[in-house]
Design goal:
- Keywords: Disulfide bond, Membrane, Oxidoreductase, Quinone, Redox-active center, Transmembrane, Transmembrane helix.
- By secondary structure, this protein is an all-alpha fold.
- It has a single domain, classed as VKOR domain (de novo design (two linked rop proteins)).
- The protein is 67% helix and 0% strand.
- It has 7 helices and no strands.
- The protein has helices spanning 27-38, 42-68, 85-90, 102-118, 124-127, 129-157, 162-201.
- Helix 2 runs antiparallel to helix 7.
- The radius of gyration is 21 Å and the shape is globular.
Length: 202
């Protein structure tokens, strides 16, 4: 078991005392709750940071989405000549993929990244290294997509959406953290392969 924060609610302390409609809470789910919220292992801290950066990008996409769906008349942003989110986010290319606002796609993608960040506990990279590698691939795809959209705005409009730029910075900042976790997972895979080879040769 990894290190944990000294303070915080433990999942077993808040088990429902009454019957009723709802989901069961098996021990593994309670353990996952404790590890993700209170764990202090290097693996969990890295995933927590990536989750935080992903939530920043989701917030940015939410602001843009409010404008793209007509809920807000304009996108609030700093009054700098470089920024013109209203123009950029109203353009046709922002609605071209799947015939829907690209902020909705960004929110969906962020949700998938968060799901992958939260799957499994502190020993994920040792016990399920493939999941860590899949997660890293998704974070890399997020970073690549953010860089592409930034380049599209900069070259085609000569203006940037400040919220999209914030999302891009958050997504790109998450990549080196994910790569560090992937290296640890690859090390676990190599160690597992070496142990298998030794046991097979005995």
């Amino acid at each position: 078991m990894g290190r944990h924060k000294s303070r915080g609610i433990r999942a077993h302390q808040v088990r429902p005392r009454f019957g009723g409609v709802g989901r069961d809470a098996p021990p593994r789910a309670e353990r996952l709750s404790d590890e993700l919220r209170l764990g202090a292992s290097r693996s969990v801290v890295r995933r927590r940071r990536i989750a935080g950066l992903t939530l920043v990008s989701a917030l940015a996409y939410g602001v843009v989405g409010a404008y793209q769906f007509g809920l807000a008349p304009a996108v609030p942003e700093p009054p700098l000549p470089l920024f013109d989110a209203d123009r950029v986010d109203a353009s046709g290319e922002a609605y071209a993929v799947l015939d829907t606002p690209d902020a909705a796609l960004g929110l969906t993608s962020a949700g998938i990244t968060l799901v992958l960040a939260g799957m499994s506990g502190e020993r994920r990279r040792a016990e399920r290294p493939w999941l860590t590698l899949l997660f890293t691939g998704k974070v890399a795809a997020d970073a690549a997509g953010a860089a592409y959209l930034f380049a599209e705005q900069a070259t085609r409009h000569r203006r940037l959406c400040s919220w999209c730029t914030l999302a891009a910075v958050a997504n790109i900042a998450a990549l080196p953290i994910a790569l560090a976790e992937a290296r640890a997972a690859l090390g676990a895979l190599r160690g597992r392969g070496a142990r298998t080879a030794r046991s097979g040769g005995e």
